[in-house]
Amino acid sequence: QVQLVESGGGLVQAGGSLRLSCAASGRTFSNYAMGWFRQAPGKERECVAAIQWSTSSTYYAESVKGRFTISRDNAKNTVYLQMNSLKPEDTAVYYCAADLLVGSTWSVTLIRNRYAYTYWGQGTQVTVSS
User: Which of 3, 46, 52, 117 is most exposed, with minimal Cβ within 10 Å?
Assistant: First the structure.
């Protein structure tokens, strides 16, 4: 079965960096979209970045543009989220997600929609102190 396993979260000071990893297994993800979502306490889960595995096309939320970079490693079947210039408002649980339809259509409406994704990881906590 499909498994998405996140790692790399932790506590960092404002202005610092973290790199999250999402190891994917259970099928070929070549036509999938891989998304990074985050959810802060009391807030909706939001998409911060996504990548279309086949083309490496990317999407970023406005709030993270210029600071976060999503990438993928075919050989390791892993997606990364490099987070730089972190702010306290980036504090959240970060989730990796995957979906075939999102990857096939690469529609922004679907990319940003948490309900469009079929597979989810367990999440990793990122805390940015001020």
Answer: 3
